[in-house]
Amino acid sequence: MATECIAQVTFKFEPKSKPIVATFDTEHASSDGGAVLLKGIDSQLALTKRLAGCLVDARQSGKVQHQTVELFRQRVFGLACGYADCNDAARLADDPIHKLLVERDPLAGPALASQPTLSRFENAVGRRELIAMGHVLADTVIAHHRRRLKGRAARITIDLDPTDDEFTFFNGHYDTWCYLPVEGAGAGRSSTIRLCSAMRLRRAAIHNMDGTQLMGRPGLPRAAEESMP
């Protein structure tokens, strides 16, 4: 697909004197077709809709162009497709797949939110809303296991693993400057499927186990404590 960085270019190959021409000028093309599978899963779980319901929209209703759930989906699916920064919003604003992910017409639908709008949106989220979203995520994991195992699981095992993310303090194990968030993943006793149920952001200049006890503290995601009947 032609972009600001890649113009419409024609490549010519001539194996055995038979020219093959490849062009990148198809209209309405996207590099993120696989995200449609994520959208299908999200539609079944209604996860982004439930998570977005935890957010308080303080904007003036008459000036709103992008609903909260649309902004939430745009950011979440963008991250899932590898676009870590809101700066990518400008070139993805008219991407047909990304418009489809937020349930807009991929061709005739209006453009997605800009980088400033997305940045204001994600920076407006507070601690209370994050905790509420953690509860929704944990409850979704538990409900999924309950349906999948038909109530046969008596216990959920939580596996806590740190992982590195960019910037802040230096971590000797990962040999880089990073954050060190800890992830809580739940699974039934006989299950080999791990589902993320909680995440806690931490600076890197700490021990791997620092703060892990808080993952099961009352008031935070309940997956570390709750068992299924």
Structure notes:
The chain has 229 residues and is of the alpha+beta class. It has two domains: 10-123, no CATH class; 127-224, no CATH class. The strands form three sheets. The chain has a three-stranded antiparallel beta sheet. Strands 1-2 form a two-stranded antiparallel sheet. The chain has a two-stranded antiparallel ribbon with strand order 4-5. It is globular and about 65 Å long. Helices cover 31% and strands 17% of the residues. It is built from seven helices and seven strands. Residues 217-229 have low confidence and may be disordered.
Comma- or semicolon-separated keywords:
229 residues, 31% helix, 17% strand, alpha+beta, 7 helices, 3-stranded antiparallel sheet
Q: What percent strand?
A: 15-25%
Q: Which structural class should the secondary elements be placed in?
A: alpha+beta
- What are the secondary-structure elements, in order, as H or E? EEHHHHHHHEEEEE
Number of domains: 2
The span between the termini is 51 Å
The strand order across the widest sheet is 3-6-7
* Gross geometry: globular
Gyration radius from CA atoms, angstroms? 21 Å
Q: How much helix, percentage-wise, in residues?
A: 25-40%
Mean pLDDT over the residues: 75
Low-confidence stretches: 217-229
Task: Work out the oligomeric state of the chains in this entry.
Answer: single chain
Main beta sheet: 3 strands, antiparallel
Number of helices: 7
How many E-type strands? 7
